[in-house]
Amino acid sequence: MLSLQQRVEQTNGQETSKPIRVLNIKSLCSKVGRSRASIYNWVNPKSPHYLPRFPKPIRIGIRSVGWLENEIDDYLAIMTKQRDGSDK
User: Fold this and answer.
1) How many angstroms separate the CA atoms of 79 and 88, rounded?
2) Which residues contact 70 (CB under 8 A, 6 or more apart)?
3) What residues make up the domain containing 74?
4) Are 22 and 67 in contact (CB under 8 A)?
């Protein structure tokens, strides 16, 4: 995981700084419990396993990408709510 910069969030009128964290593929696999191939299929529109709502990677180098941890956390929270029927 890489910390790229500080992000300022407004929370009840107070500013709190929170680091933006970027997950590499290995960290993402560990976090979601799926393989590299599965994750790359989820973000590939040509794949039959494409998940359009799964967060897209960002380019962090010439040959490397990463995923914003807060987007992954938000996605997992939404999936959990849907599973539990909390979004009805």
Assistant:
1) 13
2) 20, 21
3) 2-84
4) yes
pLDDT (0 to 100) of residue 25: 97
pTM for the complete prediction? Answer: 0.75
Alpha helices in the chain (DSSP H): 25-32, 36-42, 69-84
CA distances (Å), origin 68, targets 47, 52, 57, 63, 87: 22, 16, 8, 17, 24
How many domains are contained in the chain? 1
* 60 DSSP 8-state letter: -
**Of 15, 4, 44, 1, the residue nearest 36 (C-alpha):** 44
Q: What is the rounded average pLDDT for all residues in the chain?
A: 85
The band of 37, judged by pLDDT with boundaries at 50, 70 and 90, is: very high
- DSSP 3-state of 17: strand
DSSP labels, 39-53: HHHHT-TTSTT--TT
